[in-house]
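Appendix B, example 12.
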Amino acid sequence: MSQIINRHIYYTRLTFSSYLFADECEKYFLLKGMEQVRSLRDFQIYAFCVMDDMIHFLIKIGSGGPDEIRGILKECLATMEGRGPQPPEERREIFSAQQGRFFIQEIRTTGDIVELIRYIHLLPVEYKYVQHPTYYWWSSFSCYRGTERKSPWESLVSDDEVMNALSEKDVQARMRLLQRHREAEEKGNPLPECLKALPGLRKPDIA
């Protein structure tokens, strides 16, 4: 059963009118920048996925709301100055009305957290980047597999806190979470109920 939480947890999505992160270097430097900013700011990442023209995060902040998250993302982008092939002015326009769209939804139950984590992790499969989330480097899926092989993003993702929030033993929580991934993948990665009122979300138009 879902539990009510009140910890400033938000689903955040940025979409772009161009493929700003199509180059793998851009994705890498964005995530390394987030690691750098996380060491200085009070926030935690529960799940993420960086794609060519969109970024999805499930993030917990110490206080504040959308403006705080917007500031965090701007700081992450600022760390990319002089890195990667994308011109800096392109990144600076991400939050403008013409270039990007910033959506945010507060998350209030553990059930919604589970559904959002699997939704975010299955996006690369849904958009046909890969056949299984294991093969997509630029998401937090590897942090939740529970294998001995370490994830490259383990210092960025607070997966242990998520497991504790589910009030289960770690191994059982991970197994249940991965089971939700498998079930949702078979159904085409359905949109979580908590996001259905969020504007601009739709299924990809892929043949």
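Helices lie at 24-38, 66-78, 88-92, 110-126, 159-165, 170-186. The chain has one domain: 4-195.
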